[in-house]
Amino acid sequence: MDPHVPHGPISSVKDFLIHIGIVTIGILIALGLEQIVEAYNHARHATEAVDGFRRELADNRAQVEEVLKAMPEMRTQIRAEIAKLEAPPSANADTKIHYPGINLDLTSNASWEAAVATQALADLPYTDVHRYAEAFGVYRLFLDEERVGLAAWQDLRAFGDDASKLSPDDRRALLEHLRRYDSYSYALDLVGKGALAAGDRALKP
Fold first, then answer.
1. pLDDT at 107 (0 to 100)
2. Closest CA to 111 of 96, 124, 126
3. Is residue 167 in some structural domain?
């Protein structure tokens, strides 16, 4: 903003007041235009943030649904392996350990973090911010549970691939790990369903 004072001599109080009035009006116009541009930019950032939230939450929903869909089959695999390890050993028994799989679809909250960093949330209604914050928070919790599952799966794999080589203590430890992994699948189910519900609330128009 660079107001210019009109040229020419000031010969009276009236001229002085006219000059002051012109400068004041110029300043007010410049400030008004600046505020209009700033308000437009804020509104644009808020709209872009909401668009990003909705795209990312929709992607997260698809990933969580994919993981939850795999849980029943994974539990069947876990229980089959538990039953085999609990059965009395026999000469023709299958001694290969068939580990259950791991389902890992990483959810994202990049758009939320970007909105926080750019302060775009300040230009959104509180109720909308609350809904989006809840959804991203539960999806983040789901991601934490997935990481717990990955660590548990890695612990399982440490027992090797041949059950005949396990000591009695190792067999009991493996059974305990399998049961914990089974429990983990239910925890992931519960958090995943909560994430889907929170995401659906956030995505409502």
1. 86
2. 124
3. yes
